[in-house]
Design goal:
3-stranded antiparallel beta sheet
Length: 153
């Protein structure tokens, strides 16, 4: 079965303009056109679209996505280059996840902090709190937030 841009966009849950943009950027060389120039997506194009969507979510630049598609269309001689491209992007995403996890840890600590202050009716209760009263999972974050790294006490 073949799908128009609008139909594929609906299936993908993206605006049709997104697919037109992808085409303009050279990301859809596999999509056939009718004699009238209308793009017609085949069912096997769906996997390509999902890979493009994944790469975009992973923060991969359009140029790198285009390079991947060109490499993939070249065939098996480019398997190593494609593997490298995905491994590099995977490393970047892992670094982003680590950074986001730290951000989430700080937010979680601040929620605990203000929940504790709210229960006591004041933030003063936390100013001289003993370390053993701080949940284990928040001790490192509190320590990190409480002093300037490398500053003398």
């Amino acid at each position: 079965m073949a799908y128009t841009v609008g139909e594929m966009a609906n299936i993908m849950g993206v605006p049709a303009s997104t697919l037109r943009y992808y085409d303009k950027e050279g990301l859809l060389p596999f999509v056939e056109r009718t004699s009238g120039g209308i793009r017609m997506f085949k069912e096997q194009d769906y996997e390509w679209m999902k890979i493009i969507e994944c790469m975009k979510r992973a923060g991969m630049p359009i140029k790198d996505i285009r390079d991947y598609i060109e490499l993939a269309l070249e065939g098996d001689a480019t398997i190593h280059e494609r593997l490298q491209l995905f491994q590099n992007q995977k490393r970047l995403v892992q670094e982003q996840m680590k950074s986001l996890q730290h951000t989430l840890d700080v937010l979680d600590y601040k929620c605990w902090y203000y929940e504790t202050a709210e229960s006591a009716g004041t933030t003063d209760v936390l100013k001289n709190i003993s370390e053993d009263k701080i949940p284990d999972k928040y001790r490192e974050i509190r320590k990190e937030l409480s002093g300037v790294p490398g500053a003398e006490s």
